[in-house]
Amino acid sequence: MKKWFQQRNKWIRSLLLLSTGAIAVGLAAMIVVLLYALISGPPSLTTEQNTIYYSQDGKVIEEDFGTKRRYWVDLENISPYVVQATLTSEDRHFYDHSGFDIKRIGAAVLKNIRNLSKVEGASTITQQYARNLYLSHEKTWIRKAKEAVYALRLEMFYEKDEILAGYLNTIYYGHGAYGIEAASRYFFDKHADELTLAEAAMLAGVPKGPSYYSPYNNEENANNRQARILASMEAAGHIDADESELASREVLDYQEPSEVEAPDIAPYFQDVVAIEAMNRLDIDREQLTVGGYHIYTTLDIPTQEVLEKSMERHINKNSQIQAAGIVLEPGSGAIKGLVGGRDYEASPFNRVTQAKRMVGSTIKPFLYYEALASGFTPTTQLVSKPTKFELGDGETYAPSNFDGYYANEPITMAQALALSDNIYAVKTNVYLGPERLKNTLKQFGISGDIPAVPSLALGTASLSLYDMAKAYSKLARPEEGNTPHAITKITDSHGNTLYEYEPPAAKKAIDPVRAFITAHMMTGMFDSSLNGYMRVTGSSIADQLSRPYAGKSGTTNTDSWMMGFSPKLVAGVWTGYDQQKKITRVSEFQYAKSIWADVMEKAHEDKNFTTMKAPEGVIGVYVDPTTGLRATPYCDKQRLMYFEQGKEPKGFCTEHTYEKDQHHLEEEKNKGGWKEMLDWLF
Predict the structure, then answer these.
(1) Is 90 a catalytic residue?
(2) Alpha carbon separation from 577 to 460, 559, 587 (Å, rounded)
(3) Quick count: other Cβ atoms within 10 Å of Cβ 42?
(4) By three-state DSSP, how is residue 218 classified?
(5) How do residues 533-558 score in pLDDT, each as one tens digit?
(6) Name one GO biological process term (predicted).
(7) CA dihedral 400, 403, 409, 412 (to 10 degrees)
(8) Is pLDDT at 304 greater than 90 in this prediction?
(9) What is the distance between the terminal CA atoms of the chain, rounded to a whole angstrom?
């Protein structure tokens, strides 16, 4: 028994020592924090918190619209109802605590523990003001500690009325309105000292969630919050029951909400930046706007301007057709330019990222990339003629070529891609199995609802221009971890880095040999040596191009696409009508190609001439485009084609020989008269 008492006393002494030590450490820490706060002096009560966007060369492209609706008014120029409603809803004990409401913190902790999640906060007005003025909204313990120190400094050096006035002048009420005066003008077209009880209770509820409680966004939520605030004001003795009842019945006369001015530079791009920033920082739009962030983007202003001006130049201003375009670096994934529509103010809907349209023949390069893994080569021949495919369910499928043109003889895969032959594509897809094309698209970063059917080879999947550009960038640079992005770095207002882009490691899902061979075949759409039963699909813009590009166009009844790349840039352009209206004018089908050619040429003006480099395991052979065999000196046309080593053609073309060549020359010599004129004309 004695031993047990000795043991117990030992534990008690240890516990007392630990408690004393902990108290001493706590007191010492408090003294250090108090001394630091005292030495640091009073923080500024006003600070600009506008988020600023920079282009890739460091130029300011936009300052979020905080200063456009921000007005400072003294506390005596604010309606007493606003003060009472704000204190009631945000911090009832504001005048009684020293920056931290200990009882409220304890109650919130217990409630959150009971619910096993954060259902209630306990930040005082002082803490909220400190966070809004000096800190980001990142959810870390370091930020919380800084917030506490700033709150302490505010309480040490300023009167309560000064802190409250600062809070009411800087809190965000949504719609670009910072502070109660800006909110009063925006919602009710009056000054803050003119607000009625009902109006004050309504506005006091908005900062809790500017999107959720704005009467412009959700009037029901706003009215419910107003009712709770009026009830709290009555319970606190600020108003009586009659005043509360009258205020709750008052019909508020809202001002017609004004439209936010569109940014002057790349508005659709800036929307992409905002979404990316919110995702990276885990914040909402309001927090981004007032956070004082410095966002460094990938935007290349000259490229952006070329994209915008080219759309204006080529598209008839009276046409209702829409257009979208994106330019990015295939190596890094940096987005250099982005236009989501012809007029942002008329329609901020981003047709690069938000619209999903049938991609047409722009899907074919991925089909032929996959075919190269199954024994196909650029010279593999299939017959191009009207074909009816028997499907497994007893149905038949009979695709057709553009305007009913067919070779009615074998053509090579290189020519099929250059002419965009649909029969060749469907035959290839049926042979491989449509599921393989679907899986290939996933390898290139395209997901979503992709139908594994024979017609997938003709682009019956509806995809976004953003996803197509991402896939084409992987085709251009398969060895890179090229994730499209619009932001390189984000800092807070003090220059501390909050986020910095790091390229992901390449997954090596894309075969560089097959990607190169496919990309080189795609240059054929501009090469007249591949002309066959019709001209190559890029012939209308081929004379505008000063260097080789890999490209692929695509058309459906409602959509026109042009995708392509060089080793340095990927560009994609889509045109069509928002309501899926059919494109009936031939000129409108040409818009996408013309815009794409402009953008690629202008964007490469100051860049060195470079071509795609063949990886190891690839061999180049000059081929007769018609027969697919090695070319001889007597072949009228020759084209350099690339093959996986060991799969290049072994035989030489026998279609063109010395004798046949001489005969051909004699025929040409004897041509004349009307026949010669007709040939010249057509």
Answers:
(1) yes
(2) 17, 8, 14
(3) 12
(4) coil
(5) 999 999 999 999 999 999 999 999 99
(6) regulation of cell shape
(7) -80
(8) yes
(9) 118
DSSP conformation class of 262: P
Residue 368 has pLDDT above 60, yes or no: yes
DSSP assignment of 490-523: EE-TTS-EEEE--PPPP---S-HHHHHHHHHHHG
Q: Report CA torsion sign: 234, 228, 122, 283.
A: negative
Tokens 């024994």 belong to residue: 375
Taken as a whole, the chain contains a residue count of 682
Give the three-class secondary structure for 547.
coil
Residue of 62, 90, 181, 276 marked catalytic: 90
Residue 111 scores a pLDDT above 70: no
Segment 128-160, tens digit of pLDDT? 887 776 544 455 556 566 777 777 777 777 888
CA distance 167 to 171: 6
Calpha distance 431→435 (Å, rounded): 11
Given a contact cutoff of 8 angstroms between Cβ atoms, the answer to whether 62 and 287 are in contact is: no
> pLDDT digits over 642-672, tens only?
999 999 999 999 887 655 555 544 554 444 4
Burial of 606 (0-12, 13-18, 19+ CB in 10 A): exposed
b (16+ CB within 10 A) / e for 508-522: eebbbbbbbbbbbbb
- Tell me which of 79, 332, 361, 473 is the catalytic residue: 361
Instruction: Classify burial at 77, counting beta carbons within 10 Å of its beta carbon; exposed 0-12, middle 13-18, buried 19 or more.
Output: middle
Its pTM stands at: 0.69
- The tokens of 406 are what? 């067919």
Average pLDDT across the chain, whole number? 84
Active site residue 361: yes
Of residues 481 and 636, the one with the higher pLDDT is 636
Our measurement of the distance from residue 459's CA atom to the centroid of its chain's CA atoms, rounded to an integer in Å, reads 23
- Dihedral pair phi/psi, residue 667, rounded to 5°: -60, -45
Cβ neighbourhood burial of 44 (10 Å; 0-12, 13-18, 19+)? exposed
Token couple for 310 = 């080219």
| pLDDT recorded at residue 2 | 54
* pLDDT bracket for residue 477 (50, 70, 90): very high
pLDDT number for residue 109: 46
Task: Say if residues 403 and 420 touch (Cβ distance below 8 Å).
Answer: no
Cα 571 from Cα 548, distance rounded (Å)? 14
Separation in Å, CA 237 to CA 199, 232, 243, 300, 348: 19, 9, 11, 59, 47
Q: Across the strands, what pairs with 641?
A: 621
Q: How many CA atoms, within 13 angstroms, populate the side-chain half-sphere of residue 609?
A: 4
- What are the tokens at 448? 């979503």
Beta-sheet strand order (sheet of 322-328): 335-339, 322-328, 570-576, 559-565, 550-555
pLDDT for residue 70: 66
Secondary structure class of 584 (helix, strand, coil): coil
In this prediction, residue 94 has a pLDDT band, given cuts at 50, 70 and 90, of confident
Residue appearing with tokens 């052979």: 621
Identify the residue whose tokens are 């217990």.
Answer: 110
Q: Which two tokens stand for residue 243?
A: 């005043």
For 553, the token pair is 């166009």
Q: Which amino acid is at 302?
A: P
Q: Would you say 542 and 526 are in contact if contact means Cβ atoms under 8 Å apart?
A: yes
